[in-house]
């Protein structure tokens, strides 16, 4: 089997409009397509990151919370590579998104930080 690349990442949110604003306005992802699925009372928003990667943002009525703290089993977080982490954090903070203090990965020596999306899901910036 040959896997070519990750095709997409799916995120289920509790407040569609709030999460749509966060991922498009705060993080700058580009809308590919927005679909309302009446039979499921659900939105699906396809978002692009530099035309290479895609995030699917879903809304479903009454979806249960996923605990982030303490850390639960399963996928832990999504990480975005940035060129200048200090600049990226300043841009987030200017948009009202608080990030943890910048740390250094003890294995790679690279800088990184975490911040929450509107549902408190952990997102990481990792400096190139």
Automatic annotation (TrEMBL):
PROSITE patterns per the UniProt record, alphabetical: VOC (PS51819)
Entry keyword Metal-binding: yes
Lineage: Bacteria, Bacillati, Bacillota, Bacilli, Bacillales
GO MF annotation list: lyase activity; metal ion binding
Membrane-spanning intervals of the chain: none
SUPFAM superfamilies membership: Glyoxalase/Bleomycin resistance protein/Dihydroxybiphenyl dioxygenase
NCBIfam families, alphabetized: PRK11478.1
Keyword Metal-binding: yes
A Pfam family hit: Glyoxalase
Keywords for this protein: Lyase, Metal-binding
Name under which the protein is recorded: Putative lyase
InterPro entries, per database record: Fosfomycin_Res_Enzymes (IPR051332), Glyas_Bleomycin-R_OHBP_Dase (IPR029068), Glyas_Fos-R_dOase_dom (IPR004360), VOC_core (IPR037523), YwkD-like_dom (IPR037478)
Domain VOC: start-end pairs: 5-128
Native organism: Halalkalibacter krulwichiae
